[in-house]
Design a protein that fits this description.
Blueprint: E1 6-11, H1 20-29, E2 37-41, H2 44-52, E3 57-61
Antiparallel strand pairs: 1-2, 1-3
C-alpha cells in the first residue's frame, strides 16, 4: 500500500435492515446515503471495513 493511495467507495445497497455492525462500518467509512461516494485512504483498517460490507459497496482503487 503506497503512501497517498486511496479507495473510492460507493454505497450501492441500502443500510436499512442490515446488522448494526455493518451499518457502523458504512458510517465509519463516511457513507451517508445510497449512491454516496467517498475517497478513503488505503489502510488495513479501511480495507477491513470494506471487506465486511462488500455486498453493500462498490470499491475502486484510485
Amino acid at each position: 500500500m503506497a503512501e497517498g493511495k486511496k479507495l473510492q467507495v460507493t454505497l450501492v445497497k441500502s443500510m436499512n435492515g442490515r446488522l448494526k455492525k455493518h451499518q457502523a462500518c458504512a458510517r465509519g467509512l463516511g457513507l451517508r446515503r445510497m449512491h454516496h461516494t467517498v475517497e478513503v485512504l488505503d489502510t488495513p483498517q479501511n480495507r477491513g471495513m470494506v471487506k465486511k460490507i462488500f455486498y453493500m459497496v462498490k470499491c475502486v482503487e484510485v
